[in-house]
Amino acid sequence: MCEKHKKPRFGSALEHGPAHKEEHSLWSRRDFLSATGLMGAGSFLLGNLPLRAFQPTPLMAALTGGSNDRILVLIRLDGGNDGLNTVVQRGNSDYYNLRPSLGIKDNNLWALSNEYGMPLSTSALQPMWNDGMMKVIFNVGYPNPNLSHFRSYDIIASASDSDVVVNTGWLGRFLETEYAAFLEAPPTIPPALQIGIQTNLVFKADQANMSLAVSSPQEFYQIAQSGQLYSTNSLGNTPRELELAFLRQTANAAFRYSETIQKAYSKGKNDVQYPAANYLAEQLAIVARLIKGSLGTRVFMVELSGFDTHATQYNHHLDLLEQVATSVKAFYDDLAYGNSHLEQDVLSMTFSEFGRSIFENGSAGTDHGWGTPMLLFGGGIGNGFTGQYQDLTNPDPFGDPPFSVDFRSVYATLLQDWLGNSPDLVNYVMGQKQFPVINNLVPPAIPSVGDNNKCALLGHNPKMTAPGTLEIKYSMLQSGPIRLQILDKAGQVLRTLVDKFQEKGSYVFDFNPAEWFLSSGIYQYRLQSGGQLFQREIRF
Q1: DSSP string, 340-404
Q2: Contact (CB, 8 A) for 82 and 356
C-alpha cells in the first residue's frame, strides 16, 4: 500500500479518544522527564529550578564562514502548524469545501499575490513582504511521514529518514566537525543559544548537546543581570541549606558564558517596542539585544507552543499567527534601527514537526497532517514562493497530498548558501545524501578562504636576533584557554609549548627546537583556541 493511501496513525486524531490522550501524555512525560533530568545526566534540580548540565562540547564560532558574519534564528512552532490556514490559496473552492467553518474568507486576507494571501492577523508581515524580506516555502515534509509529535520532531531535528533513528542533530553534526578542540581549549562565547523548555536534539552531537539552553526568558535575565543562575543569598546555615548552597555555587561556577553574556546584554539594547504579553516576542527581544551587543553567537532557537489545534481552532490559530507576525516584525525593526543594517545578516526560519490534516474535523479543528509551510525572514532575501501548494482537488480520506519540498533540502541550502559551507561538508551533515540545494532561496554567502581567517595561526619565521629560534605567531579573537603543541609527521603530540588561559590579542612564541630536545626534521605545529584547531607544517 502506498503511503498516500495509508490510514492516519491511530492516536493522531482527537476522535481516537484514549489513544490520542495517551499520545499526548507520552509527549508530555518525555518533556517533563527531559526538563527535570530524570531521563539521564542532562540536568539536575536546584531548589525546584531545572538546570541542564553545561557539558563540554564542540561549539560553533565557525558559522561565520570566513568573512561571513551571518546569523541563523530558528523559530519553532510547537505542536504542528496548520499550513493551509497560514498561507491560503485565494478563491480555491476545494479549500472552503474541506473546511466549511475553518476556511478563512478572502476578505480576511492580505495579498501575497493574486493567488495567495495570509490572514489579516498577520498583517504586520505585509511591509516585510513588500520590502523583499520574506519568502514562503510551500508544503515542506518528508517521505512516509510520522504523525507522532515525539517521533516526527526527532526526524525534523536529526534530518533522518522516517524509518531510521539518529541520535544527533543536523546542526550538532555540523558543529562537531568545526570544533575538534573544544575539550582542550573551549570558547567563552556560546555559539548557539536556545530559549525553551529543554535542550534540543537539533544541536546534539555524539558527546553532548552543543547549545546553551535556558529554560525561559526569566532564567536568561538572571544570567544576564547577575552572572549566576541561582541565588545563594537567601540560604541559611542548616545542613540542608549549606548543601544546597554548595550545589548552587558549583553550578554557578561552571557557567562559563556568564561574563560574555553580561557584557553583550549590557552593551546592546532594544530600540523598539515589542508586543506585550507575547512569549515569542520576549524571546526575540533577548536575541536582538545580544546580536546588537555583539555577543558573537551565530545560531539561536526560540519557540512558541500551542499549534496542536484539534478543537476550536479558528480564533486560537489566528491569535498564534498574530503573535508570530508581530514578534518577527518587531525583531527586524529592532535590528534595522538607526541604519545599522543588522537585519541583512540575520535569517529567521519557522519550522514545525508536521502540518495539519486538510480536512476539518468534527470539533472545529484539524488533526495531525503532513506538509506545512516554512517562512523565511531576513533583509535582502527578496520575496516569493518555493515549492508547490498542496493539491486539494482530489482529497484522499486516508492521507494528505504528498509533500512538495523535502525539509532536508532547506537545511542543505542554509548550510551551503547562507552559512557558506562546501557541498562535501553539507553532504556529510545530511548523512552522505545529496539533497538538492534550492536555487535563489537565500543570497549565497561569501565563501570561506580557509581556517586561518577565522582565528589565529598566523605562521612562523626565523628570529633574526636569535639564531636557531623560530617565531610562531598566533592571534586570539577572544580570551580563553589556549594550547600550542609540536607534533610529528604522523600527528602524535611531542611537546606542549603553551597551555594556559590568555587574553585576546596577538602573540609570538619563541621556539628553539634544541631547548625542547628536538632534532632537525619535518614537524607540525598545532594551535587549539576558542574550540577550534589549526595546524601547519614546520621544518627545522
Answers
A1: --GGGGEEEEEE-S--B-SS--TTSS--B-S-EEEEEE-TT-EEEEES-----SS-BTTBPPPPS
A2: yes
144: how many CB neighbours lie within 10 A of its CB?
12
Domain end residue (candidates: 399, 429, 459): 429
The reply to whether 48 falls in a domain is yes
Q: How many domains does the chain have?
A: 2
Transcribe 430-450 into DSSP letters. Answer: TTS--PPP-TTSSPPPPPP--
Residue located via cell numbers 499526548: 24
pTM of the model: 0.78
Give pLDDT < 70 ranges for the chain.
Answer: 1-68, 177-187, 197-199, 207-208, 228-232, 246-255, 447-456
**For residues 102, 107, 109 and 113, what is the CA-based torsion angle, rounded to 10 degrees?**
130
CA-closest candidate to residue 317, choices 328, 329, 305: 305
CA angle 125, 129, 133 (to 5 degrees): 100
528 lies in which domain range? 451-539
What pLDDT digit, counting tens, does each position of 481-524 carry?
889 999 998 889 999 999 998 887 878 899 999 999 999 999 99
Answer for the pair 370, 314: CB distance below 8 angstroms, yes or no.
no
Cα end-to-end distance, the chain, whole Å: 69
Give the whole-angstrom CA distance, residue 270 versus residue 292: 8
Residue 130 Cα distances to 72, 111, 117, 442, 452, angstroms: 22, 10, 13, 17, 40
Task: For 217-271, write each residue's pLDDT tens digit.
Answer: 988 888 888 776 666 677 778 877 777 776 666 555 556 788 889 999 999 999 9
